Fold:
Amino acid sequence: MSALSTAAPSAATTMIASEPPCSTDEAFRQCERIARDHYENFTLGSHLLPRPLRRHIAAIYAFARTADDFADEDPDAGRALAALDAWERELEDCYADQPRHPIFVALAETVREFAIPIQPFRDLLTAFRMDVRFAGFPTFDDLLFYCRHSANPVGHLVLYLFGHADAERQACADDICTALQLTNFWQDLAVDLGKGRIYLPREDMARFGYGADDLARHAVTPEFRALMAFQCERTRGLFERGLALADMLARREGREVRLFAGGGLAILDRLVAVEYDVFRARPALSRWAKIALVARALVGVDR
Structure:
């Protein structure tokens, strides 16, 4: 028998079985509580968005946040994968108009109203399974493949909420979402290292002559700075290319895009300012820097 078939009942199975039926309004309230209770580097469903969209953003977030917790919080890989499998079955029931768990009761309303296909949600679950089996990334292309599943589906889902399903807008959103994901990796390099995760592609570390042993001892050498500068510059290029999306959307939606991308670009600027020494202190934005980002987004300025 496989590890999955012999695993103890998963957290997902237990939670689903214990949830009583609830109204759609209560389901959305539960999703909104999940969104409020979790901190994210980049604001989700900010107040720049029309109020009617915020609860749908919360439903999508609650789906992903819960799946992420299944992947990260159980040290037993078999149980974590079983939980994700159970979550995917609930997703399928949601699309069959038979949701049970409150998150899926809310999500069913969202996918009906905005005609959202199932694939972006499946892609997110693929990324969470990759997290369970995490082994790093040999090449930058491998890292981009991960981002295509972990980050880019979020951009597609938000575009569906905005009423857009075309390839041109999705491609720009992919650039921004991948850039945001990469920025978070460079910003949290020390944090992730403490969890045994290295997102720097091994081919790039070899190219710049910076080894895993150097990383383990937090060596901020000229080679490390050159490696990080290289990663940050190509991440900046993705932001700059993806920002064309802001002009393809309505004014209010474009402001949201500028806010997200501006936050990522500001973190890259902070990394440059500290000469890429992410080990001494995690680069972050001050309160005033965040206010400035909102102000720039409101007036439609990218930088």
